[in-house]
């Protein structure tokens, strides 16, 4: 069975119209609808089953021959000067040194195999094929950037999602991973770049109203990590958690507060809280109550407070839930990536 994506048949809800408008503004002059870097015919279970066989065999051969491979790069300085001098040499990204965050072991892996393992851990396979392909490019690009700007001593990436990207070993996996394999194979070697560098391909679970810019969250402007309209509805990204009165008191005591009074804005969202010695903003409240987002509503119940949070994660770069919604509306993976990472180009590793 072939799944064909109906391109550009988008339901014209106000949210979608705003998304199209934002997209049009952002890509003004960009060659969004020209040739894509790879053929993307959509997911075919038959083709994917064939590619599982070929790919795993290929990975085995490559992993077996890693020590003899001339492309292996150990000199970090040489790598950095390489990209500065030539601008477009990404061959160094063909292999990635992966630090197992639990065992401390470092393995060198084919970038495609690593991308598959990261993709399996980072996005559910129930998501649309084009969203999975966008995520595959983001995972591959993230690793490539770390090869040039590593934060680990003898490794390029680790398997801790709080530090780098999550990782699930694909070899020997018992569940059906054909859709993820298809996404990796169909985007093989493709990375997102900006000014001839792999981008910082930040992504998060979901956003409400807008994604966040890099400088808003981490400081330091990146022209491709700017805030864009989020296609998620409130319901798409809502998550409610209850904090009991006892727990609330414990949290307040830790912060040296006796009581707080939540303030509600016109749109129903919490706008902060008054306390005896001043005001707590939503970011502070998010951290205090370990909430998923600083966009939330608060409701007092008989047992405590219900916090309904909208969006999940740091909010910078690609929203995975948003990518899935855009894919459902007919965006292909290049369009999705260009939507979230403004002004990017695509390059091949080799
Ligand atoms: Zn790390």
Task: Please describe the topology of this protein.
Elements: H1 14-26, H2 45-64, H3 76-86, E1 95-99, E2 106-110, H4 111-122, H5 129-148, E3 157-158, H6 178-186, E4 190-194, E5 197-198, E6 203-204, H7 214-217, E7 238-244, H8 245-254, E8 260-264, E9 270-275, E10 278-280, H9 282-288, E11 296-300, E12 304-310, E13 318-319, H10 320-328, H11 333-340, E14 345-348
Parallel strand pairs: 1-3, 6-13
Antiparallel strand pairs: 1-2, 4-5, 4-14, 7-12, 8-9, 9-10, 11-12
The structure holds zinc ion (ZN).
Zinc ion (ZN) is lined by residues 152, 157-158, 160, 163-164.
Describe this structure as you would to a colleague.
The protein is 35% helix and 17% strand. The protein is an alpha+beta fold. The protein folds into 2 domains: 14-232 and 314-348, no CATH class; 235-310, no CATH class. It is elongated and about 60 Å long. It binds zinc ion. Zinc ion binds at residues 152, 157-158, 160, 163-164.
Overview in brief:
The chain has 350 residues and is of the alpha+beta class.
- Neighbour order of strands in the largest sheet: 2-1-3
Radius of gyration: 22 Å
The whole-number mean of residue pLDDT values reads: 80
How many extended strands?
14
State the share of residues found in helices, binned by percent: 25-40%
Give the number of domains: 2
How would you classify the helix and strand content by structural class?
alpha+beta
Point out poorly predicted stretches: 1-12, 23-42, 47-87
Distance between the termini: 32 Å
* Percentage of β-strand residues: 15-25%
Shape: elongated
């Amino acid at each position: 069975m072939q799944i064909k994506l109906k391109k550009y048949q988008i339901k014209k809800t106000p949210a979608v119209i705003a998304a199209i408008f934002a997209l049009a503004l952002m890509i003004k002059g960009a060659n969004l609808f020209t040739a894509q870097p790879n053929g993307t015919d959509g997911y075919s279970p038959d083709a994917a089953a064939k590619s599982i066989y070929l790919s795993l065999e290929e990975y085995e051969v490559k992993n077996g021959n890693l020590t003899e491979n001339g492309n292996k790069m150990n000199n970090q300085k040489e790598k950095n000067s390489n990209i500065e001098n030539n601008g477009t040499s990404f061959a160094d990204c063909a292999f990635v040194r992966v630090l197992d965050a639990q065992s401390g072991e470092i393995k060198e892996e084919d970038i495609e195999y690593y991308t598959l393992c990261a993709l399996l851990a980072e996005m559910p396979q129930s998501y649309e094929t084009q969203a999975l392909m966008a995520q595959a490019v983001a995972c591959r690009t993230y690793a490539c950037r770390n090869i040039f700007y590593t934060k680990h001593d003898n490794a390029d990436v680790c398997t801790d999602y709080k530090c780098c990207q999550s990782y699930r070993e694909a070899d020997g996996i018992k569940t059906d991973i054909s859709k993820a394999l298809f996404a990796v194979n169909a985007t093989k070697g493709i990375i997102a770049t900006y000014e001839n560098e792999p981008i910082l391909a930040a992504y998060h679970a979901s956003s409400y109203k807008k994604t966040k810019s890099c400088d808003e969250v981490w400081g330091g402007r990146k022209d491709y990590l700017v805030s864009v309209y989020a296609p998620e509805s409130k319901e798409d990204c809502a998550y409610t958690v209850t904090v009991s009165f006892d727990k609330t008191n414990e949290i307040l005591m830790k912060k040296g507060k006796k009581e707080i009074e939540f303030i509600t804005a016109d749109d129903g969202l919490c706008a902060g809280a008054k306390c005896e010695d001043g005001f707590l903003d939503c970011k502070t409240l998010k951290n205090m109550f370990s909430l998923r987002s600083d966009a939330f509503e608060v409701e007092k119940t008989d047992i405590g407070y219900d916090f309904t949070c909208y969006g999940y994660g740091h909010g910078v770069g690609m929203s995975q839930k948003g990518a899935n919604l855009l894919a459902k509306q007919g965006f292909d993976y290049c369009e999705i990536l260009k939507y979230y990472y403004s002004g990017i180009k695509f390059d091949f590793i080799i």
